[in-house]
Design a protein that fits this description.
By secondary structure, this protein is an alpha/beta fold. The chain has 7 helices and 5 strands.
């Protein structure tokens, strides 16, 4: 089975592709219990003109049409950056059982700044998920230094 690091690097690559298409630099992948990549998601808010078209929401929309809640309980979503509160809630409601992310949202804001206050919503994913009645395992940030360096490059595109 591929390692978590490999899956996170894949999510970061998807984030780079999203940025190259004129969208925000976020990417994610859904992996089943056997380590197979089921779906990928990238941010499309600019190209779709849809403020809700975050990478995780795009992936979860497809996942919920394809897989049932109980199957998703045994899946992991790997994200390039810690999900925002909306995406974290979507992960919760989808049934996905595990979240692994590369770069902490606070570190992402350290890179891009906090000037656009309407874009900053700093609630840690683990804190939000602990409020729910269903357990979702949260792992991250992992790959923080590498992800930080990659995001400096991605944002320069």
């Amino acid at each position: 089975m591929k390692s978590e690091i490999t899956f996170l690097r894949m999510a970061i690559q998807i984030a780079k592709e999203s940025k190259q298409k004129g969208n925000l630099p976020f990417g994610c992948i859904l992996v089943n219990q056997q380590g197979e990549v089921l779906l990928t998601g990238q941010n499309t808010i600019n190209s779709d003109k849809d403020c809700l078209a975050h990478a995780e929401v795009n992936l979860i929309r497809e996942a919920s049409r394809t897989f049932d809640f109980s199957y998703l309980n045994n899946c992991t979503i790997f994200t390039s950056v810690e999900p925002c509160p909306m995406c974290t809630s979507a992960i919760y409601w989808s049934g996905i059982g595990r979240l692994v992310y590369a770069l902490a949202k606070t570190t992402f804001y350290d890179i891009i700044g906090r000037d656009g206050s309407n874009l900053v919503f700093e609630i840690p994913a683990i804190e939000l998920l602990q409020k729910g009645g269903r357990k979702v395992e949260v792992v991250g940030p992992i790959l923080q230094i590498e992800a930080y360096d990659e995001y400096l490059k991605i944002l320069a595109i």
